[in-house]
Amino acid sequence: MKNTSIVVDSNAEENVMLQNAKNTGLTDEEVEIITKEEYLARVDLEYIEKPTELEILKQEKEILAQSVY
């Protein structure tokens, strides 16, 4: 979910990063350790332009108008 994560860049071993997260009060289920490549791929997916609600309504209106004939 957008704006619900904290990104920490670290060169530490995975077990050290996990322990550091636990020390801040997070549980194993709340922590995900990913590579830089995985992070960048997710960022790219987040910024795919999605149609606005108005654009969706206009498209639906056009479809309905075509189906009336």
Protein topology:
Layout: H1 14-23, H2 36-46, H3 53-68
Notes on the structure:
By secondary structure, the protein is mainly alpha-helical. The chain has one domain (14-68). 54% of the residues lie in helices and 0% in strands. It is built from three helices and no strands. It has helices spanning 14-23, 36-46, 53-68. The longest helix is centred in the last third of the chain and has 16 residues, at 53-68. It is elongated, with a radius of gyration of 21 Å. The relative contact order is 0.08. The mean pLDDT is 84.
Q: Gyration radius, to the nearest Å?
A: 21 Å
Distance between the termini: 42 Å
Quick one: biggest sheet?
Answer: none
Could you state the order of secondary-structure elements as H and E?
A: HHH
The number of domains is 1
Helix count, per DSSP?
Answer: 3
Q: Unreliable stretches, pLDDT < 50, 5 or more residues?
A: none
Summed up, what is this model?
With 69 residues, the protein is mainly α. It has helices at residues 14-23, 36-46, 53-68. The two termini are 42 Å apart.
Record keyword descriptors for this entry:
69 residues, mainly alpha
